[in-house]
Amino acid sequence: MSDNRRLIDISLGKISNNRRALAVAVAALIIFGAAALILMPQQRVQEQVRGSRGGGGTGGPIPVLAEKARLADVPVYLDGVGTAKALNTVTVRPQVEGKLISINFKEGQDVPKGYVLARIDPTTYQAQLDQAIAKKAQDEAQLGNAKLDLERYQRLAASNSITKQQADTQQAMVTQLQAQVQADQAAIDNARAVLSYTTITAPISGRTGIRQVDEGNIVHTTDTNGIVVLTQIKPISVLFNLPQQDVARVNLAFAQHPLRVDALGSNNQPTDEGVLQVVDNQVDPTTGTVKLKAEFPNSGLQLWPGQFVNVRMLIDTLKQVVVVPTAAVQRGPNGPFVFVVDGDHVTIHPVTVSQQNDTQAVIASGVQAGNDVVTTGFAQLAEGTRVRVSAGQNGGAGAPSAGEVPAQDPAAISGADRGRAGNRPNDTGRGTRQRRSSAGAASGSGQ
Length: 447
Hints:
Number of helices: 4
Distance between the termini: 86 Å
CATH class of the largest domain: Mainly Beta
Helix content: 25-40%
Radius of gyration: 46 Å
Structural class: alpha+beta
Number of strands: 22
Order of helices and strands: HEEEEEHHEEEEHEEEEEEEEEEEEE
CATH architecture of the largest domain: Beta Barrel
Strand order of the largest sheet: 2-9-12-11-10-13
Number of domains: 4
Strand content: 25-35%
Shape: elongated
């Protein structure tokens, strides 16, 4: 019996070991199956990505858009932010005290020089003028009598009937009365001037502001606000600042001819065209900028006193220079470069960018007019890559031919050049503004 039990125990132990092995095998199969389900889709995606990057595995040319480099006259601007200021501003204050009996203007009215704005009660000042006139008449009567007496004294003195001293005394009396009459005339002129101050007129041509006092009030010469503020806004001036580094260029251009200044609207388009009037005679040491003043006709009242204004000043025009779209200029560790289409492949041309904005760049060297430069599709390009120029609005077929001078617009090159810092392939993000672009000015990731 003991042997049978031993055999049964051994058999049961083997069965238990087999079950454990089976369970371990099943668990391993489950783990491997789950891992396969997770990894296989990723491998398929990676294969698809590699296939798409490799042109679908066909090895064909890469489609790109290209545009021809061309010759053009490019204006050079200096950009700044300024403040519009009325050409003349006058706070109209009374020159005499009294009751304001009438106001003859409407708020916001354009008035010419000499227009009667208000009147002060003239009664008291008219009386003072009448008194001065009467005083002069009285003194003139005394002067006339003194002159008659002087003639008598002179005849008597000639016959030695009176002493010469009496004649001289009468002569002095006549001279004294003559001076008194002159003083009376001065008093009359003063009284007449004071009386004229009761009529308040516009000292300049301009637009009235909000009325500061109402009719019927007593006004004084010491009133701070006055009666109204009069501003001359046709024409109008704009004060703006430029960095001190630009002072030499501005003075050189200003000495040769008047400099045009454009006031830009919210859409970055010119709203009015003016002329530079003066460059301040010193640089602000706290900001390193110099103040300039331009004058604008402002016929349509596009500019308003106190308004912030973006301005650009034309200081030069680059004649017949090579320009390419800004999107064509790429940047790498060695500086800016472009991809030039040469037959069915592209070559890398290092370039020197002298001026640049958001739409076009002036190329000083590295590209010639007529070269087809790639503007879109840089991701898979390298030296010698085969390409196929696709038809598009940026394609070379629609670009102006070499030597053609297109009409300039507000997208012209600005002196405060707008660079494309860190330009990446297929990156159409906005560039950053910079003062000047050069061959080694910008760093960033190229390809």
